[in-house]
Design a protein that fits this description.
alpha+beta; RNA Polymerase Alpha Subunit, Chain A, domain 2; 2 domains; globular; Ribosomal Protein L25, Chain P; 13 strands
């Protein structure tokens, strides 16, 4: 479990104008909720972006001020995709020694045999929901797919047992599979046709 710290300041103003002013000063308006009454805070944008290249529910963060500290997970956030900036963060406070339920990203590792044989690797599930004590929380779950052949798949039930971790994602959920190129092309064509039909239907409904 990798844990990082982040400084925070208490904020009192709740109006939108105050949030915009914070952002102009290089801060991200945020909130801590969970065990106690919600706490309105602000974190430094530069510090957050430098320490957290990706925003994940599986990283425990210690929020610190001169008076208090909180162990939290990022439960939600708002982002300006065009500017590439985080606009608001919802932090969820956790308690050490008590189970936490959250989502953990999956990382596929290795060069599958099926790809070398001409197949295509399709990643279908990018994260799983787990429950465990904070001390057992992994940032990612790595899956070795090097032995995966054409027509074979990896399901959630195939993930090796991990100490103290309970999976809530259905066991039969497909994480990844190796498909033949032609099958992938047909699936892509069918998806394009479905999108075109949906667009046509939308136009017809607008005209009516």
């Amino acid at each position: 479990m990798d844990q990082k710290s982040l400084r925070y300041d208490i904020r009192t103003a709740k109006k939108k104008g105050a949030a915009r002013k914070l952002r102009r000063s290089g801060k991200i308006p945020s909130i801590i909720y969970g065990r106690h009454a919600p706490v309105l805070i602000a974190v430094d944008e530069h510090e957050f972006s430098s320490k957290f290249k990706t925003v994940s529910e599986s990283t425990i963060i210690t929020l610190k001020s001169e008076k208090d500290s909180y162990d939290v997970l990022v439960k939600d956030y708002q982002e300006d995709i065009i500017k590439g900036k985080i606009l608001h963060i919802d932090f969820y406070e956790i308690e050490r020694g008590k189970p936490v339920r959250t989502h953990v990203p999956i990382r596929l590792e290795g060069a599958p045999i099926g790809v070398r044989e001409g197949g295509l690797l399709e990643s279908l599930t990018h994260e799983v929901e787990i429950e465990c004590l904070p001390k057992n929380l992994p940032e990612t779950i790595r899956i070795d797919v090097s032995g995966l052949g054409v027509g074979h798949s990896v399901h959630v039930r195939d993930i090796p047992e991990m100490e103290g971790i309970k999976f809530h994602t259905p066991a039969d959920m497909v994480i990844c599979t190796i498909v033949r190129k032609r099958e992938a092309e047909v699936a892509e064509e069918e998806e394009e046709v479905a999108l075109e039909e949906a667009e046509v239907q939308e136009e017809v409904e607008k005209e009516e």
